[in-house]
Design goal:
This protein is of the alpha+beta class. 24% of the residues lie in helices and 23% in strands. Strand 8 and strand 9 form a beta hairpin.
Length: 183
C-alpha cells in the first residue's frame, strides 16, 4: 500500500527514550511507550534516521532539538525513530555531548514494523532511510520526503513547510511565514 498525502498516516506504537537530560535518565525513568494516538489534536513531525552512533544522524537530531521550541509554538511534536533499541538510544544520548539534553522522544523500531509501515525500511541493510513525515492533527499524512543516508535534512526547511501547511492556503515557491499566500 502506497503512502499518499491526505490519507491516514500509518499508526505506530513503540518503546521510546523520553526527552530530557540523558545524564539523569536511568532505565527506570527513561522509557515510555508512545503511539500516534497520543498526539491527537497536534501536528507531528516524525523523522527516521539510519542508526545510532553514526556521523550524519546526530547533526540533524541536534538541530531538531535546537528548533524544538519553534515546533512547539506551532502545536507540533517531534519524534525521532530508528531501528535501534531504546537501550541503544539511551547509551548514545548519554555519551554524545550534543544529544544529552534532547527535548523530544526517540522511538525504537527493532522489529522494523514502524519503518515498514512508513515504507522507509532499507531491507538489504535492516535500517531506515532518512524519511520525514508531517502528520496533521487528524492523523492525515500531509508531507513526506526521503533523503539518502549521507545527506542530512534541514530542520528550518521542515519548519517552513509546516508553517505553509498550517496556513491552509496555497503558498508560492520560497514562501516564508508572514508573506502573502496565493489567492
Amino acid at each position: 500500500m502506497a503512502l499518499l498525502i491526505g490519507h491516514d498516516a500509518p499508526k505506530f506504537k513503540g518503546k521510546s527514550l523520553v526527552g530530557g537530560d540523558a545524564t539523569i535518565l536511568s532505565p527506570d525513568n527513561a522509557f515510555k511507550d508512545i503511539s500516534l494516538d497520543d498526539y491527537k489534536g497536534k501536528w507531528v513531525v516524525l523523522f527516521f534516521y539510519p542508526l545510532d552512533f553514526t556521523f550524519v544522524c546526530p547533526t540533524e537530531i541536534e538541530e531538531f532539538g535546537k528548533n524544538y521550541e519553534e515546533f512547539k509554538k506551532l502545536n507540533t511534536e517531534v519524534i525521532a525513530c530508528s531501528t535501534d533499541s531504546h537501550h541503544s538510544h539511551l547509551a548514545w544520548r548519554s555519551n554524545h555531548p550534543g544529544l544529552k539534553k534532547l527535548p523530544y522522544p526517540m522511538i525504537a523500531d527493532p522489529t522494523h514494523e514502524i519503518s515498514r509501515s512508513f515504507e522507509i525500511l532499507k531491507e538489504e541493510t535492516g535500517y531506515a532511510l532518512r524519511g520525514l513525515y508531517i502528520i496533521d492533527p487528524n492523523g492525515k499524512l500531509q508531507y513526506s520526503v526521503i533523503h539518502p543516508e549521507d545527506v542530512g535534512r534541514n530542520s528550518k526547511e521542515v519548519l517552513r513547510v509546516l508553517q505553509a501547511l498550517q496556513t491552509g492556503e496555497k503558498t508560492p515557491c520560497n514562501w516564508v511565514a508572514g508573506e502573502k499566500t496565493l489567492d
